[in-house]
Design brief:
Length: 457
């Protein structure tokens, strides 16, 4: 085989070669011979079918298999010639030329390689982390919220009007086009108004009702509602409010602390305040990371850590971004893209910069995860999907099946790994800051001790 290879950069290579007609004929014979051992043809015993008959009857399939094997051999030779290992090849190599000529097939293969990433500058990419101080006022407000949640429910006076955060006890039945639908009926249902447990508009429409009132509530199911027979439909719910419950007052004292901190022996109000302060600190940290610092960190990593990108992976990312965008554009724009190949190409090309950044960050995160031993198990992925589905009022099993069937689980896992890697980097900045503060304290203490000794002399 006449073969030449070239590394375009550290992440991309190209191989050119000619698969000789003679070699291809040998492949055709080998493929036909293998096929003759298993194929059944009337009038011939198994394994005794003449090769000429096999070649004639299954000409196209044999030719396709022979060419495929020849290209695979060429690819393996190219990998050897490039002096790389098979595990360095990333994604599926792309055949960019396949010209059949009398002397053979002129083939060009583009190969993407796992990029080499230098992580020395990662620490310089981590933004400084400063948390806002948790004030006593915030602790007190959270303590009051916690106490209110723990307070028992009591019946409200009969003349009370339903308000947000009240608990309504009511019957309801839903109708679409004056016909009841499955799952749209319940009796003595208890609902906290403002919990958003029901679809938009339902709970707000109940505000102002009194015990004993009847009301028809008109709502529209979301277009993406999990029950397809209800999605996007207008509905009327007939409501009968039986009663209203409100939270009773509860004393904030050591007894409440003991109830809320059963794992702590002799828990008191001071312990509970400390627990709430810790929780508020965690929330403040998570908010700061998610709303500000993670984005800064990602931008810094992209701007600082430079390496060659595998072209094929970037192209695949562009394809995905382009396909996803088709679901968000207007019907007129979609029609234009379908009828004008240049416009479609231009639209796809508009995603190149986004794709390059996404691929860059994915490779950096993967390298950091390997360096720092960050892993996410399949079980953790399923637990996360289950929890989020439950929070959205969806069927967890159906959501998991959807992710499986659409091959989305690897993307979910990668997102979770990225989140952990970025959090770990930001946490390391806190640890460094705390270490510096501690060293300064120790240094100050030593100086003070020396000064005291001198004075005593």
């Amino acid at each position: 085989m006449n073969l030449s290879t070239k590394k375009l950069n550290s992440a991309n290579a190209i191989a050119n070669g000619v698969i000789a007609t003679k070699d291809l004929e040998e492949k055709l014979t080998k493929v036909a011979t293998r096929l003759s051992k298993t194929i059944k043809v009337d009038g011939f015993r198994k394994g005794k079918v003449p090769l000429n008959l096999i070649k004639a009857r299954y000409k196209d399939a044999i030719k396709q298999d022979a060419q495929k094997e020849a290209v695979q051999e060429m690819l393996q030779e190219a990998i050897k010639d490039l002096k790389i290992e098979s595990k360095q090849v990333i994604g599926d190599p792309i055949i960019t030329k396949f010209d059949e000529k009398s002397e053979g097939i002129d083939v060009e293969i583009k190969i993407s390689l796992t990029p080499e990433i230098d992580l020395k500058l990662v620490d310089k990419c981590i933004p400084s982390v400063k948390f806002p101080k948790i004030e006593n006022k915030a602790i007190k407000e959270r303590l009051e919220e916690v106490a209110k949640r723990e307070a028992p429910l009591v019946e409200a006076p009969k003349d009370k009007k339903l308000e947000k955060n009240d608990f309504a006890v009511f019957d309801f039945e839903g109708f679409i086009d004056d016909k009841p639908f499955d799952g749209g009926k319940a009796e003595n249902f208890e609902l906290m108004i403002g919990s958003n447990q029901f679809i938009a508009g339902f709970e707000d429409s109940m505000i102002g009702m009194k015990a004993g009132d009847n009301k028809d509530i008109k709502v529209t199911f979301p277009k993406d509602y999990q029950a397809e027979n209800l999605a996007g439909k207008d509905a009327v719910f007939k409501i009968k409010l039986h009663g209203i419950k409100v939270k009773d007052s509860i004393k904030i004292d050591d007894a409440l602390a003991k109830r809320l901190l059963p794992q702590k022996e002799n828990a008191n109000l001071e312990d509970l305040n400390e627990q709430i302060k810790n929780q508020l600190e965690i929330e403040a940290k998570t908010k700061l990371y998610n709303e500000e610092l993670k984005e800064k960190l990602v931008d810094n990593l992209f701007d600082t850590i430079k390496f060659d990108l595998p072209d094929l992976i970037v192209e695949q990312e562009m394809d995905m971004l382009f396909r996803n965008s088709l679901g968000t554009i207007s019907p007129d724009e979609l029609k234009q893209l379908q009828s004008d190949a240049n416009k479609a190409k231009e639209k796809r090309e508009s995603f190149r910069a986004t794709a390059q950044k996404s691929v860059t960050i994915t490779f950096i995160v993967d390298a950091l995860a390997k360096r720092d031993g960050v892993v996410v198990s399949d079980n953790e992925v399923f637990q996360t999907i289950y929890y989020e589905a439950m929070m959205m009022g969806q069927n967890p099993k159906e959501v998991v099946e959807y992710y499986k069937n659409n091959n989305l689980l690897p993307a979910i896992k990668m997102a979770m790994i990225e989140d952990r890697v970025l959090h770990k980097l930001l946490d390391s900045k806190i640890e460094q800051s705390e270490k510096v503060v501690e060293e300064k304290k120790e240094s100050k203490t030593k100086k003070e001790n020396k000064s005291t000794k001198k004075d005593s002399k």
